[in-house]
Design goal:
The chain is of the alpha/beta class. The chain has two domains: 188 residues, Vaccinia Virus protein VP39 (Rossmann fold, 3-Layer(aba) Sandwich), CATH 3.40.50.150; 95 residues, DNA polymerase, domain 1 (Orthogonal Bundle). The protein has 14 helices and ten strands. The strands form two sheets. It has a seven-stranded mixed beta sheet with strand order 3-2-1-4-5-9-8, with helices on both faces. Strand 6 and strand 7 form a beta hairpin. Helix 9 crosses helix 10. The longest helix has 15 residues. It starts with 8 loop residues before the first helix and ends with a strand. 43% of the residues are buried. The model has no long low-confidence stretch (mean pLDDT 90).
Length: 309
């Protein structure tokens, strides 16, 4: 099994700027790479959150090494405001699947090694196989199109329904490959990549979790606290870009205290630290090809005030 290599680690720590006495949340603890780097960068405390029990178990050694400074919680980062005892100075999120999960065939994330069609990041909820074998053709096609941005989603859904039951990753990959035909092999990515991505996002409600997590981070960050997010595909990046873009602008609303319906203005919740996403360096991509699609966006929390009311 390959070790997990934290993506854009230098850029994450540089942007987060940990300080002595600070409190930070690593909302996607995974292999503990970001958490360890934060703890090394300053005499601070870190709360590590992960929905995968294996990740929490792996983190026990790191917790012992940084006794009293690292706390681990089994849960979802969308609930970080309930886990944090007080406001924090920074939150980092590394979205998507960890290398540990991806490289374990029994987790069912990859078409490169045969395993059960699971794809759950945690231990609860619907498996990918449950959905694939129960959903009607139209629902399957909608999920594959929406979350995989797969133009031939209908053909793939039709082929899956005809081949059911489908219980193994290799089975599903072969079905998708046949449905797309020989022409699909001319592209750099495997024909099943978008379908597997779509099912994984759906099963784990990744976009919903991200939206809720952004709101939770906003509630949890102290004034001038920093939010740093590394995403790996356009759907995630779009959610982050839209959220931070909206929250970094002055919002207008009607106040009951304003005379004649004069709009009150709510000052921005964030100041953007990245107007465009930061990309991994060519050297990092060469060392770690999984970094090639990474995008880093960041913002500084500005505790909102309302003026004109």
């Amino acid at each position: 099994m390959n070790a997990h290599v934290p993506v854009m680690l230098t850029e994450v720590i540089e942007t987060l700027a940990p300080c002595d006495g600070g409190r930070y949340i690593d909302g996607t603890f995974g292999g503990g790479g970001y958490a360890q780097a934060i703890l090394q960068a300053a005499k601070c405390d870190v709360l590590g959150i992960d929905r995968d029990p294996d990740a929490i178990a792996r983190g026990e050694a790191l917790k012992e090494r940084y006794a009293g400074r690292l706390t681990l919680v089994l849960g979802r980062f969308s609930a970080m405001d309930t886990y944090a005892e007080r406001e924090v100075d920074g939150v980092v999120l590394d979205l998507g699947v960890s290398s540990f999960q991806f490289d374990q065939a029994e987790r069912g994330f990859s078409f490169r090694a045969d395993g059960p069609l699971d794809m759950r990041m945690g231990v609860d909820g619907e498996r990918a196989a449950d959905f694939v074998n129960a959903a009607d053709e139209r629902t399957l096609a909608d999920v594959i199109f929406r979350y995989g941005e797969e133009r031939k989603a209908r053909s793939i859904a039709r082929a899956i329904v005809a081949a059911r039951p489908v219980t193994r990753t290799a089975e599903l990959a072969a079905i998708v490959e046949r449905a797309l035909g020989p022409a699909a092999r001319r592209f750099a990515i495997h024909p099943a990549t978008r379908t597997f991505q779509a099912l994984r996002i759906y099963v784990n409600d990744e976009l919903g979790e991200l939206e809720r997590g952004l709101e939770a981070a906003t509630r949890t960050l102290a004034n001038h606290g920093r939010l740093v997010i590394v995403s790996f595909h356009s759907l995630e990046d779009r959610v982050v870009k839209h959220y931070l873009g909206e929250r970094s602008q002055i919002a207008r609303r009607t106040s009951r205290h304003a005379p004649d319906g004069m709009p009150a203005r709510r000052l921005p919740d964030y100041r953007l630290l990245t107007t465009r996403p930061r990309m991994p360096s060519a050297a990092e991509i060469e060392r770690n090809p999984r970094a090639r699609s990474a995008r880093l966006r960041a913002a500084e929390r500005l505790r909102a005030r309302t003026i004109g009311a």
